[in-house]
Amino acid sequence: MTVEFSRRLAIVLGILTPLAETIRRWSTWQSDLPAFFDDYILGAFLLYGAWRVHKDVHSGQRFLAAAWAFTCGMAYLSFFGQLHRLHLGEVDPAPIASEWVAVIKGIGLALAVLGLVGSLREIPAGEA
C-alpha cells in the first residue's frame, strides 16, 4: 500500500461518501441537518488531502493523513452507532435495509483504515 493508493482511495471516497449520504437521507435531511452535512465535510477533507499530495507528495502527506484520521474517527462512530441502532431495532432512513447500511459502513471503516495506513507510509527520498 502506497501514498498513491491512499490518494486515489481518498478521491473515490471523497466523492462517493457525500453522494451516498445524499441518497440515504434525501427525504429526512431536515430532521438532523448536522448528520447530513458531516459526510460533506469528510469528503472535502479527503479531496483536499488528495489534492495536496498530488501537488507535492512530501508536504501534502500530512494533510492526507489528517483527512484519513478524521475519516477513521467518523467511520468508527458511524459504524458502531449503526450496530447499536440495529440492536435497538431502529430503522435507517436509507432506501435499503438497515443491515446493508451497517455492512456498507463497516466496509467504509475498513477502507478508511487502509487509507490511513497508506498515507502514513514513508515516501522514498527520490519520489516526487
Report the span from N to C terminus: 17 Å
Question: What amount of the residues lies in strands?
Answer: under 5%
Query: Radius of gyration, rounded?
Result: 16 Å
Number of strand elements: 0
Taken together, the total number of domains comes to 1
Low-pLDDT regions: none
Explain how this protein is built.
The chain is mostly helical. The chain has one domain. 77% of the residues lie in helices and 0% in strands. The protein contains 4 helices and no strands. It has helices at 3-24, 33-55, 57-88, 98-119. Helix 1 packs antiparallel against helix 2 (33-55). It is elongated. 30% of the residues are buried.
Write the layout of secondary structure elements.
Elements: H1 3-24, H2 33-55, H3 57-88, H4 98-119
List keywords for this structure.
mainly alpha; 4 helices
In short:
The protein contains four helices and no strands.
